[in-house]
Design a protein that fits this description.
The complex is a heterodimer of chains A (345) and B (255). With 345 residues, chain A is α/β, with parallel strands linked by helices. Chain A is 32% helix and 26% strand. The chains are: A alpha/beta (345), B mainly alpha (255). The complex binds adenosine-5'-triphosphate (ATP) and magnesium ion (MG).
């Protein structure tokens, strides 16, 4: 095989990453991690990871279920002690200067851990008091955040009655109540509808613009691609790659593809005929289109045009697709397409 | 090493106290009226009282101090064994663990909610006894101190047991009961320490309820086994020991 067996889902590769930006001038690292190891019994959940996140950067932690994303966040927020290794938050060692390190962070955990017996407002007040934010400031912050997350009208209702998306939004609002410089977001949008998703993504963009450092875990590749300056791909507790999304894609330039549709649709032999064209590594039929994988798109385009001419048909659309972050992910995690694909949504 | 200045310590202390109070307030709002808490903290001591007064020659008036003692024991230690496992399950406990405060402040905050609960219930018993039975009082300060310090002591005991990493309140409640029930019999609450076998008397000295009971009994009858300052001192020692152990356990069981 020249290329790994690849089935694209309806995720388009982006030709450019719109949010790539220079790290801020501040040269203090927001997060510095060296050789962290965390074991649970015989299982090594985090296996010797080292990375750093610059102040103002948006850093994505991308990995399948059980990769060690949440475990890493729990170590970085000082909830869970590592077996070995070091982590500092804005220069404060998380093990030895836990309180100072936590002061500047906001934490949004994977489950929406809000007090369902309290109202939205009471939840915000509690979160703020844990950071000793004075009454007038916490009331102002809470009102602003609840409005921003479209929860203000419901602020005096018990959270019991909130929908999943509302609880998620409240969790995020609580994580922001101390105006953190560094925000940990553990799968902020997983399982939410489009509207909640949009509100949350917009909020993350606003924070990024405002210079807040964001550490985001996700198994949503597109989310990482859209939001992150850099992405670490973690699998089985090990970081497989760490770079800007576009750089990661460059590492697997061989997985480019051409999507083509013919005027007369398909024929029983067409897939095999296309697969036999020069420079085509693999071909698949996707709906009324064919997808041809290659390392050299321009040669394949010529070949397809010639093929159309020879077979008395016409090409009605043809598109070149670069490798997607999903391809990188699949390549690096050795994930089998098909069965394992459900690990990524 | 962070610099140690008076202002720094004051700042840190006020931060910790604000957070501890916020944690306690949350427990007040959420857990005080939970059925599990009411059964363990209010009904249990009441039944114990009725059982003892029914089978005894003692008059209800003589039993009131004992009732107040076991009320503080049961009600103070009934909040955290319920709230902490529930919060582990809902993962709201992570929120508290991740707050910019020390574990000591977290333990203190949790315990304060037990303290307040216990003081409220003991006050109800005290006032009801006064109104209905017209119990004579020798020294009200001894009663007040007895209630306050024993409530804090048993609240911290409850928080200590709640450190056991389970998501099921029943697990912790049964462990707490293994300690709470024997205490009633060896602390002079219903059975005077003097009539206990010598082995029992030895154990009585390591029971905080002995000192709490001595204060409260003394407040009603004027007769005490120990000096009141010794009683309060012993309760403070127990509070500190429980606080330190609880702190250690929460750290230890944290994964
Ligand atoms: N408290 C724990 N005790 C035992 N094993 C644990 C514990 N926490 C995590 N693990 C294990 O560590 C591994 C990493 O888990 P982690 O929750 O960090 O994964 P994740 O990347 O966040 O996955 P997901 O996408 O499902 O949230 C898993 O195999 C998990 O079973
Ligand atoms: Mg996770």
């Amino acid at each position: 095989m020249h290329a790994p067996p690849v089935v694209f889902r309806k995720v388009r590769a982006r030709s450019s990453n719109s949010c790539f930006k220079n790290p801020h001038d501040d040269d203090m690292q927001a997060i510095e991690v060296s050789h962290l190891i965390k074991r649970f019994g015989t299982l090594t959940a985090v296996n010797d990871i080292t990375f750093s996140v610059a102040a103002g950067e948006t850093f994505g932690f991308l990995g399948p279920n059980g990769a060690g994303k949440t475990t890493t966040i729990r170590i970085l927020t000082g909830i869970s002690p590592p077996n070995s290794g070091q982590a500092t938050i804005f220069g404060h060692d998380i093990m030895r200067e836990t309180v100072a390190a936590r002061q500047s962070m906001g934490i949004v955990s994977e489950t929406s851990n809000v007090y369902t017996d309290l109202t939205g407002w009471q939840n915000m007040m509690l979160a703020a008091q844990l950071y000793r934010i004075g009454r007038s400031e916490r009331e102002k912050n809470a009102s602003e955040l609840l409005k921003r997350f479209e929860l203000y009208e419901r602020r005096n209702d018990k959270v019991h009655g909130f929908s999943k998306g509302m609880k998620r939004r409240l969790t995020i609002a609580m994580g922001l109540v101390n105006s953190p410089r560094l925000l940990f977001l553990d799968e902020p949008t997983s399982g939410l509808d489009v509207e909640s998703n949009l509100i949350i993504r917009q909020m993350i963009s606003d924070l990024i613009t405002g210079g807040v450092t964001v550490f985001l875990t996700t198994h949503n590749i597109e989310e990482a691609n859209i939001l992150c300056d850099r992405v670490a791909i973690i699998d089985k507790g090990v970081i497989a790659a760490i770079d800007a999304p576009e750089q990661l894609k460059k590492t697997i330039q061989s997985v480019q593809s051409i999507e083509v549709a013919f005027l007369d649709g398909t024929s029983p032999t067409r897939l095999d005929e296309l697969r036999a064209l020069p420079m085509v590594n693999d071909a698949r039929k996707e709906g009324d289109k064919f997808k041809l994988f290659t390392e050299d798109p321009s040669q394949v385009i010529d070949a397809v045009m010639a093929y159309a001419h020879d077979h008395h048909t016409r090409v009605i659309s043809i598109t070149t697709l670069g490798p997607s972050l999903e391809d990188v992910f699949v390549r690096l995690t050795g994930l089998q397409r098909g069965g394992g694909i459900s690990a990524i949504d | 090493m962070p610099s140690i200045s008076l202002a720094g310590i004051e700042d840190r202390l006020s931060r910790e106290l604000v957070a501890a109070w916020a944690i306690a307030k949350k427990d007040v709002l959420i857990y005080y009226l939970r059925p599990g808490v009411i059964v363990g903290g209010v009904l249990f001591p009441l039944f114990m009282f009725l059982a003892f007064s029914a089978g005894k020659l003692a008059t209800p008036v003589q039993l009131v101090p004992g009732l107040i003692g076991i009320t503080t024991l049961f009600s103070a230690s009934s909040i955290e064994p319920v709230s902490v496992p529930i919060e582990r399950r809902t993962e709201t406990f992570d929120r508290l663990l991740a707050a910019p405060i020390s574990l000591n402040a977290l333990v203190l905050g949790e315990s304060i909610s037990g303290l307040v609960y216990s003081v409220l219930i003991a006050a109800v018993v005290f006032i009801a006894a006064l109104a209905v039975l017209m119990t004579p009082i020798a020294n009200i300060f001894l009663i007040v101190f007895g209630i306050l310090f024993s409530s804090m002591c048993f609240a911290t005991l409850g928080t200590l047991f709640a450190a056991y990493p389970t998501e099921n309140p029943g697990d912790i409640i049964s462990m707490v009961n293994v300690v709470r029930f024997p205490l009633i019999f060896i602390s002079g609450v219903f059975i005077p320490i003097a009539v206990l076998p010598s082995f029992g008397q030895m154990i009585a000295y390591i029971s905080p309820l002995t000192y709490a009971n001595d204060l409260i009994q003394g407040g009603y009858s004027g007769k005490m086994t120990f000096h009141p300052i010794f009683d309060v001192g012993m309760l403070i020692v127990f509070i500190l020991i429980f606080q330190v152990i609880a702190n250690y356990l929460y750290k230890r069981f944290n994964d």
